[in-house]
Specification:
The complex is a heterodimer.
Chain A lengths: L2 E13 L8 H8 L8 E12 L12 H16 L2 E2 H4 L10 H12 L6 E8 L5 E4 L10
Parallel strand pairs in A: 1-3
Antiparallel strand pairs in A: 1-2, 2-4, 4-5
Chain B lengths: L1 E13 L8 H8 L8 E13 L11 H16 L2 E2 H4 L10 H12 L7 E10 L2 E5 L6
Parallel strand pairs in B: 1-3
Antiparallel strand pairs in B: 1-2, 2-4, 4-5
The chains are: A alpha+beta, B alpha+beta.
Chain lengths: 142, 138
């Protein structure tokens, strides 16, 4: 029986979309309002999906307490209520689009020891969401 | 291939307790979910059926038919029940979202004979759900 467990977490952060590879006019043209020099913020929702065999003793793919504490340590604590561009090392030289944020979250959670990470789905707002399931060049992700 | 999804809600109680564990282990592993008196959720079930449309009706499966199957197989069994005691298939299992979703798949798959059951998504709360794809690859 193929089963996947998904848990949703919330975090709030600000970002500014601005690429050092583009000049000011182009940054403004491409990113529009998101290029505001002061940044702006979102209530992000992170969906973490894991899979694996269900332990018959507990009925669980992954112990939720273990998953929650791992995600809290790796994602919520370092990102919640931060300015992604300045407070997060990974975004010092990478535009913190929600695509890149989604990939960063996947990379930080893929070592979760309790089950296999399948994908991350990241909602930037209730209307925009992004999904990343690792690279598809023959590795373990479908 | 077209997929259609119907959503239903049912409310049920459950308790996580493994008789093979000591009382202390049960409390440590299952936490609040080990409360002897049980606790409950408003479950939301999304059932997805995939198939080709019948050219005469334009439908994969008549939604009325799916609604009746869900009423008979799921609502009658699980709605306003204590899952551990009133759903015999769960008597020897911990009624986690994983195990309930797998049971729902087993109950529904043989009953859906127009199109094929593709996915069962069971929400236990607004921040937790389990997807079951049966034995088929996703």
């Amino acid at each position: 029986m193929k089963l996947e467990l998904t848990r949703r977490y919330a975090l709030a952060a600000s970002h500014r979309l601005h690429s050092p590879h583009l000049d000011e006019a182009e940054n403004l043209r491409i990113y529009g309002k998101c290029n505001n020099p002061y940044g702006h913020g979102h209530n992000y929702v992170v969906e973490v999906t894991v899979t694996g065999p269900v332990d018959p003793a507990t009925g669980m793919i992954a112990h939720l307490g273990d998953l929650d504490s791992y995600v809290t340590r790796e994602i919520i604590e370092p990102f919640d209520h931060t300015y992604l561009n300045k407070d997060v090392e990974a975004f010092r030289d990478r535009v913190p689009t929600t695509e890149n944020f989604c990939i960063e979250i996947f990379e930080r959670l893929k070592q979760f020891p309790g089950a296999r990470l399948v994908r991350i789905r990241l909602e930037e707002t209730g209307r925009n969401s992004f999904e990343y399931a690792g690279q598809k060049n023959g590795d373990e992700h479908d | 291939m077209v997929y259609l999804t119907r959503k239903i809600e049912f409310s049920a109680a459950h308790r996580y307790h493994n008789p093979a564990f000591s009382a202390e282990e049960n409390r440590r592993i299952f936490g609040k979910c080990n409360n002897p008196n049980g606790h409950g959720h408003n479950y939301v079930l999304e059932v997805t059926v995939g198939g080709e449309t019948d050219p005469r009706t334009g439908m994969v499966l008549d939604l009325k038919e799916l609604k009746e199957i869900l009423e008979r197989e799921i609502m009658n069994r699980m709605d306003h029940r204590f899952l551990n005691y009133e759903v015999p298939e769960l008597a020897d299992q911990i009624p986690t979202c994983e195990n309930i979703a797998a049971l729902i798949w087993k109950l529904l798959a043989p009953k859906i004979n127009k199109g094929r059951l593709t996915r069962v998504r069971l929400w236990e709360s607004s921040d937790l759900y389990v997807d079951c794809y049966g034995d088929g690859a996703r």
